[in-house]
Amino acid sequence: MPTTEDVLRDIDDKFDIALGKLLELVSIPSISSEPCGKEGIARAAEWLKRELSSMGLAADVIGTNGHPVVLARSSSAATGNEPRLLFYGHYDVQPVGDIGQWKHSPFAPTVIEEDGLHRFYGRGTSDSKSQLWTFIQGLRAWKSVHGELPADVVVLLEGEEECGSPSLADFIEAHRDDLACDVAFICDAEMWSATQPAITTQLKGLVHERVTISAPNPDLHSGHYGAVAANPIRILSTILASLHDGKGRVAIDGFYDGVRDIPDAVRRQWQKLSREPELFADVDLAGGIAEEGYAPIEAMWGRPTVDINGITGGNQGPGERSVLPGSATARLSFRLVAGQSPETIRRRFRSHVERLVPEGCRVEFEGQGGSSAVVLSQDSAYLKAAARGLEKEWETPVILRGTGGAIPLVEQLSDALQTECVVIGFILPSDAIHAPDERYDSARLRQGARSWIRIFEEIRAQRPGQA
Q: How far apart are CA 443 and CA 369, in angstroms?
């Protein structure tokens, strides 16, 4: 009878092959938010379909109104004693941005030895092709050694996560029976540190808005009309400045309606974590602002926020142009907590802006949808099994953490399938996620794949409900 050690040895023995294949996947420019990425999206989807099919899964590339989903399932239905496990990842990546800021090619990854690590660079190395590759390799190794998968398995790989998952809700609704499961493992999250694993139990909701202020005139000569005509940049700046008071609180009427304070037990848990000396080692918080009365980690994970993500208008060129712009635009993101509705927050923000637009000027908004905050149970038997597995592989306790980020899929799966979700992952803030020279390292990739073997063993050893 094969043992867990036999499966772990299979991962180690075949790791160079697995790493080489991941570098192939990273080399495909599967950018979801730009038209130039469409061909790369199609190539990556077919590449993943072939890999999943080679493991004996029934894999398909399924079209949506946007980019396709790769859906794979084990061939036999689950028995009464066998759970059905869903694994989620996304194969699309962020745009490259300014290529001049990259020291390493974004789509030609090679392994480089530096800082004591075997590191590889490229767009999508950490977010999130390495993530999905960990559970695919875990499933492959288990099947290779045992001759069968550890459970009835569904693999869901999305191609639109980096552009807001606009097609995912409809896909889930149309494939409810295919996706039905006992637990969904969402592998798109961070570790606590390079040596300590984490499970994310609290995620914020997210609303994106774009607001444009237009003057009654086109661009004007600022020397002639700057003292008398409307300046949309000045108007927009005034509106943006009005979104916060002097204590770091959002000043939109009704913004905090329904928001409950952080529970005392959770606050004590987070305050203990906030004493970790390396928590903000990679980020200088000088000049930042947190809501008065809350430590930075509490503000990040447990309080709602609004951030200005970009402003454009008027002269954006390299030379001087004395222009009074005809319009100005800002992009904003709202991070929500439990008790806040995306629709309500959007409506109240727009009302706030409309009240401050001067007569003769007009305002236009873009933005729809959004996701609500999610708080996951820490008492889930599947979460406990995952924690035990991670602790065995990393030989250190698992941190149950919150995050200021959002994963809309968690809410969608929880609501549509009425299933529980476990959110884990193996990336770090220092991986330059969404930034130039995004990177990952082979040691974490190997231990990530090994972690799934430990988790599978824990799930098989203890059926949910016995914890």
A: 39
Length of the chain: 467
Element (H, E) at 222: helix 222-225
Task: Read off the pLDDT of residues 239-253 as tens digits, 9 standing for 90 and up.
Answer: 999 999 999 999 999
Confidence at 76, pLDDT banded by 50, 70, 90: low
Spatial strand order in the sheet of 362-366: 305-313, 327-336, 205-214, 362-366
Say if CB 199 and CB 387 are below 8 A apart.
Answer: yes
Give the pair of three-digit tokens for residue 443. Answer: 């040691």
Q: Strands of 142-267 (E only): list them.
A: 152-158, 183-187, 198-203, 205-214, 220-221
- DSSP three-state, residue 312: strand
- Render pLDDT for 182-194 as a digit per residue (tens, 0 to 9): 999 999 999 999 9
The burial of 288, by beta-carbon neighbours within 10 Å (0-12 exposed, 13-18 middle, 19 or more buried), is given as exposed
Exposure class string for 257-282: b at 16+ Cβ within 10 A, else e: eeeeebeeebbebbeebeeeeeeeee
CB-CB neighbours of 146 under 10 Å: 15
Residue 218 main-chain phi, psi, to 5 deg: -75, -170
Distance of alpha carbon 116 from alpha carbon 107, whole angstroms: 23
- Beta-sheet strand order (sheet of 117-121): 111-114, 117-121, 439-441
Most distant CA atoms of the chain, gap in Å: 87
Would you state the pLDDT for residue 127? Answer: 95
Peptide bond between residue 222 and the one before it cis (omega within 30 degrees of 0): no
Q: What are phi and psi of 462, to 5 degrees?
A: -135, 110
> Which of 373, 300, 295 lies closest to 338, judged by CA?
373
Partnered with residue 111 across adjacent β-strands are 120
Query: Residues near 364 by Cβ (< 8 Å), separated by ≥ 6?
Result: 211, 212, 214
DSSP 263: P
Residue 352 has a CB neighbour count (10 Å cut-off) of 18
Could you give the C-alpha distances from 139 to 53, 135, 393, 445, in angstroms and in order? Answer: 12, 6, 16, 14
- Contact assessment for residue 357 and residue 213, using Cβ atoms and an 8 Å cutoff: yes
Assessment of whether the complete model's pTM goes beyond 0.85? yes
Report yes or no: 467 and 41 within 8 Å, Cβ to Cβ. no
CB < 8 Å & 24+ apart, contacts of 47-53: 48/91, 48/157, 51/21, 51/136, 52/136, 52/155
Whole-number Å distance between alpha carbons of 17 and 423: 27
- Name the strand (E) or helix (H) holding 121: strand 117-121
